[in-house]
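From the methods appendix. Each design record in this collection lists the tokenized structure first, followed by the designed amino acid sequence. Records were kept in a plain field format so they could be parsed without special tools. The example shown here is representative of the layout used throughout.

RECORD:
FOLD TOKENS (129 positions):
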């Protein structure tokens, strides 16, 4: 009789341990899923913010183009300096487009405008080898 009670008690303890373990696993999975969803939302938010920022910069760049004295554009893989209207080429810079950081490449693709020689040459010096 005592051995039957002992076996029943042991079986109940094992079942309870199994249930607790299963609950812990489910709780961890739920927490992992919540973290993944939160990261996904953050990435979406960051992407929307970057898109809005790029759109504003694009509008700003096109408005600035009207008053700029110099414009840098990608000319067959090398940056070239043009007048503000990008109609007359002043000189090739010797700076290769592919060597620029992605953020600068995006600006150059749309035309990178400068209002004075100092800013122009500061930019060129920072990216020339």
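DESIGN:
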């Amino acid at each position: 009789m005592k051995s039957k009670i002992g076996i029943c008690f042991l079986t109940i303890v094992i079942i309870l341990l199994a249930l607790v373990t299963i609950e812990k696993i489910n709780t961890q999975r739920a927490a992992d899923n919540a973290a993944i969803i939160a990261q996904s939302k953050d990435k979406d938010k960051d992407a929307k913010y970057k898109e809005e920022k790029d759109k504003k910069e694009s509008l700003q760049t096109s408005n600035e183009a009207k008053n700029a004295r110099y414009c840098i554009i990608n000319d067959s893989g090398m940056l070239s300096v043009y007048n503000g209207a990008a109609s007359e080429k002043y000189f090739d810079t010797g700076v290769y487009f592919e060597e620029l950081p992605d953020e600068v490449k995006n600006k150059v693709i749309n035309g990178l405008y400068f209002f004075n020689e100092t800013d122009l040459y500061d930019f060129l010096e920072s990216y020339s080898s």
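APPENDIX NOTE: The chain is about 65% helix and 20% strand.
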